Amino acid sequence: MAQVLFAFFWKLGGIGLLLLGILDSSFLFAPLGNDLLVVAMTARHHSIPEMLYYAAMSTIGSVLGCLLVDLVMRKAGEAGLEKHLRRKRLEYVKKKVSQNAVWALVLASIAPPPFPFTPFIMAAAALQYPRRHMLAVVGAARMARFTALGVLALLFGERILRWAQNDIVQEFLVGLIVVCTVGSVVSIYGWIRRSRTAAGSTRRQPSPALKR
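The structure assignment produced for this chain is given below.
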């Protein structure tokens, strides 16, 4: 199953990067998925225009994924955010976003796992940070990240392709995809369960508009 998933996104090329970017930045769990595919595709084709294309498609996918999260969390507000994040992480993310939302989003966009990304998007949306600003910051930071990875792939493409033939590396990649698949199932279930809980709480409480 893992091999089929990897081959599916690989064969789609830039469209595969776009789809994976949407999924990874919204409700699924796919750490390093776009990063590895950008590096692998760039190393295989070894072309600057191709590299920029792969980086751009990954960036667009990530921005669209963030937009999906924004559409859900902006309506849910801070009360809805509390349903999706544990208290310790919630306090940390809210603090960083409240202090300097731009730098918090930039750091979340360029930092590799296990640094959280989606929780910062959720917090920015729930705390009503301007949508256009958020998507612009994420897009610029993600493009810088994927372009940097593409440049490394251009410089060390032959070595990367040799490493990719190693049995240990291939087993690691398959294992990573399996973990991502299981994590995605858990993530989707969690989103559905918490969204239903938040919706039920909202119906039981007076509307914020009525309070005013």
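Interim note for the steering committee: The two ends are 53 Å apart (CA to CA). Residues 167-204 form the longest helix (38 residues).
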